[in-house]
Design goal:
Blueprint (H helix, E strand, L loop, with lengths): L2 E4 L5 E5 L2 E5 L7 H7 L5 E4 L5 E5 L3 E2 L1 H9 L4 E4 L5 E5 L7 H10 L3 H26 L6 H19 L3 H21 L19 H23 L18 H7 L3 H14 L8 E3 L5 E3 L1 H16 L1 E3 L6 E3 H18 L11
Parallel strand pairs: 1-5, 2-6, 5-7
Antiparallel strand pairs: 2-3, 3-4, 7-8, 9-10, 11-12
């Protein structure tokens, strides 16, 4: 795995020679049962094989493990137990000063900001449209066809819009068409989706989408850090808050190909069941611990699936495609080349 997910509450990540070692707290059951289930053995992972570490909730990192992450340029992302982003660990010495300087210069370039935001929204809408087309190819649901037609009109408007605020408006309109249409393509009677809800998610499908988008965001954030970009200087997403806006920007075109496709697959193939979710005190619905582990494994499998990318011959993994998009963004900053969104074919 390229990502090391630490989800067991009370676990400890430590360094042992050239490996990360994950020690999980021992359950309060008989030692014979522990030995028979293989739970006494810690997990050992070569440090060189880890690209990022994601820490969920109450997990401890030793000083040696933290030092190894900093020295080996392994980003560490901290999240709540339910998956809400809290912050990250990274050495500022690893930034690319030339690229970051260009980011600050472009921050006041309104034409650059608009064109980048336009490309990202266009790519997001195109991939959303392509997913609906693919899923509706056999079912021919009229409501889905109407949603696709509406997204087509939104794409035409995006191509000519002159202000970022208007661009965000068309993005929101397309989302209002997209998610109900996606819900019509769920064939598992235990799940439904009528609209998008977040913070907290109000149903199981929104819970999966939110968790998947969080994982996607963390992957893009980690890649931005390793490529030397400042993740806080965005184009489409901008505000007075000190948030990683560029990570939100560059994840947009991968939402449908990676997360939405995975969520629909897990639901329609009945890999996940309604009992895999539980209510929590915040009023939201979240995956149980066992189901979260399953989702993490399937998310990693999805990220490793091969897909065509115009910048290389042959196929690359989705994670590599994200890296190529980030490097293309670097060229936009430094050389003024046009940004081309990642598009997933039908």
């Amino acid at each position: 795995m390229s990502s090391l997910y630490l989800v067991h509450q009370g676990a400890t990540l430590r360094k042992e020679q050239e490996r990360f070692v994950v020690d999980e707290p021992k359950p309060k059951i008989k030692a014979d049962d522990l030995l028979s289930e293989g739970l006494l053995s810690p997990v050992r992972v070569p440090i060189k094989e880890v690209e990022q570490v994601l820490v969920f909730g109450n997990v401890h990192l030793s000083t040696a493990a933290v030092s190894a992450c900093l020295e080996e340029q392994v980003p560490v992302v901290f999240l709540s137990q339910s998956g809400r982003y809290k912050g990250h660990l990274w050495s500022a010495e690893r930034c690319n000063l030339a690229v970051e300087s260009a980011q600050f210069d472009r921050r006041h370039d309104q034409i650059f900001q608009l064109e980048m935001a336009r490309s990202m929204v266009w790519g997001k809408l195109m991939n959303s449209r392509q997913l609906l087309l693919r899923l509706n190819r056999k079912r021919q649901v009229m409501e889905v066809e109407r949603a696709i037609g509406g997204i087509d009109r939104d794409l035409e408007s995006v191509a000519t819009v002159a202000q970022i605020e208007s661009l965000r408006g068309y993005e929101g309109a397309a989302a209002a068409r997209y998610f109900p249409a996606l819900g019509r393509l769920l064939i598992n009677p235990g799940f439904s989706l009528t609209d998008r809800s977040r913070r907290p998610p109000k149903d199981a499908v929104n819970s999966l989408l939110s968790f998947g988008y969080t994982l996607l965001f963390n992957n893009v954030l980690s890649l931005l850090l390793t490529e030397g970009l400042n993740p806080y200087l965005g184009n489409l997403h901008r505000s007075d808050r000190h948030d990683p806006h560029l990570a939100f920007d560059l994840m947009e075109e991968f939402r449908s190909p990676v997360v939405d496709t995975l969520v629909v697959t897990l639901i329609n193939q009945q890999v996940l069941k309604p009992e895999d979710f539980s209510d929590v005190s915040e009023g939201g619905i979240y995956l149980t611990n066992a189901a979260r582990r399953l989702f993490l494994r399937r998310f990693e499998e999805r990220m490793s699936e091969l897909v065509a990318h115009p910048n290389v011959q042959g196929q690359v993994s989705y994670r590599r495609a994200m890296q190529l998009q980030i490097r293309q963004y670097q060229r936009c900053l430094l050389d003024g080349v046009e940004y081309e969104s990642f598009l997933r074919a039908v």
